[in-house]
Structures are given as structure tokens and as C-alpha cells.
Amino acid sequence: MNPYPHFYLQATLDYENKIVFETISCSFLKNKDINLKFLFGVNNSKLFAWLLYKFVYNNAIRSTRYDEQYASKIPCPDFSRINQKPIINIVEKLLNAKEENPEADTNQLEKQLDEMVYKLYELTEEEIKIVEGK
Known about the structure:
mainly alpha
């Protein structure tokens, strides 16, 4: 369960393979080296929810704006230099499962995604406990 339930970015992919963000305004620079499904997976992880809480919403006074002034504070590895495929594979499984059945239980896939993102950010067990609110 997300310990920061109100701080998910609420990102989804549209049929033109663009990321769509609901209920907030934001802007991204498109980088051809970063797959949008990979970015979608990272953005929908528990860690990213926690990072949004700490770096964006905690600083933006009663705002849901995802502006550069706040978003640029989110630490980010160089995504263009890593193997994005494992996260892309999980995202595709998640999207396929939800397309087949919108009520499908995808908790196991979501947990795998979170674990991959923790590894991507090189989090320790103690840091993971903080992110998960334990």
C-alpha cells in the first residue's frame, strides 16, 4: 500500500504513446534515449510517490503544480545510461493485464516494479523502509 496515497503522479499512457498527467500541470523535455514506458514505470512507483511528496508537494504551497522549480529537485539517475528494458517489460505486463481486465490484481507486478526502481536508485533496506512508511 502506498504510504503517500495522495501523492502519486497519476500518469497514464495514451494511444499515441505519450504520457498524460491527470489533475496536475507539468512539462517534460522529451529525450529520445528514454523510453516513455520506462518513464511511466518509474513515475508510478512508490519511490517516485515519496520523492514527489518530499520534493514537490512539501514545497509547493497548497499546489499540485509539477513545475521545474520543484520537479528539478527530484534526484534522478541518468536514465539514458541504464538498461530500461526490465522496467519496460513489467510496465507492458501491467498495461496488458489491465487492458484485458481493468479489475485485474496486479499487486505482484507493482511490487516487482517498486523493487526495480529501488535498485535503480540504489536504495538500502533502511531507505526502502522509510519510503514504504515502515
